[in-house]
Amino acid sequence: MTRRRAFMAGRDRQQRPVALVTGAGRSAGIAASVVVKLAQTGWDVGFTYWTPYDERMPWGADPEAVRQLRDRAGEHGAATAATEADLSDPDAAAAVLETVERELGPVTALVLAHCESVDSGLLDTTVESFDRHFAVNARASWLLIREYAQRFQGAHGTGRIISLTSDHTAGNLPYGASKGALDRITLAAARELAHLGVTANAVNPGPTDTGWMTAEVKDAVLRSTPLGRLGLPQDCANLVAFLCSTNGGWINGQLLHSDGGFA
């Protein structure tokens, strides 16, 4: 018997539902905070990451992130399943759900926190970049939601879909446009998956301090936020955990702003 199977045999699997969180490749990111918060609140958590994306971003790859995230979740009693997945591949969604189901069990909550995000505007966005943004941010999200719905076996009212979105468009056109498409996909799920008792909501966390902000950006965000501080990954994670809880079950089909009043 493998160590994983021995672990599974030694505990009641009904005690911890399973969540899948995408885009958890950085320790400082929102997705990583969501993984830890869900572990704290009683979930086993599968998560995806994609190192080549982080490698081409200004912050670079975080080679210890996956191990550290598994350790942090494990401290709260959570079993984890980490999968490196190129979500621009149309076959990735089914493969990810299959892996998480095999290692942890059926997925009850799907949290879409992955993204492609490269700054460019109307005049300088390339076709390749535009297509990649939509492939990752919109198409992959649709495919993950579809695969999740086809596999969902939970009791009516227990299922959760939460997508992380953005209203940034000017100077960030392909990201903002593809996130707008994600909003519509999520809101469609709230209606079309009603027969499964699955709720679907989009969360806009606003500018969040995950290490990408320059001093100038931080100053501008602080001046535009009535509460006088920067958004933190934990702020979004707290809302996601609430939406995933039984107390969040009556919230459905909403675009929620969790940004301290940023304007």
Model description:
With 263 residues, the chain is of the alpha/beta class. The protein is 42% helix and 14% strand. Strands 3-2-1-4-5-6-7 form a seven-stranded parallel sheet, with helices on both faces. α6 (127-151) links the parallel β4 and β5. The longest helix has 25 residues, at 127-151. The model is unreliable at 1-13 (pLDDT under 50).
Can you give me a brief rundown of this structure?
With 263 residues, the chain is an alpha/beta fold. Helices cover 42% and strands 14% of the residues.
Topology of helices and strands:
Blueprint: H1 3-9, E1 18-21, H2 30-40, E2 44-49, H3 51-55, H4 65-74, E3 80-84, H5 92-103, E4 107-112, H6 127-151, E5 159-164, H7 173-192, E6 198-204, H8 215-223, H9 233-244, E7 255-257
Helix pairs in contact: 2-4, 2-9, 5-6, 6-7
N- to C-terminal separation?
55 Å
Which range does the strand content fall in?
5-15%
Number of strands: 7
Number of continuous helical runs: 9
Helix content: 40-55%
Give the spatial strand order of the biggest sheet: 3-2-1-4-5-6-7
List keywords for this structure.
alpha/beta, 42% helix, 14% strand, globular, disordered N terminus
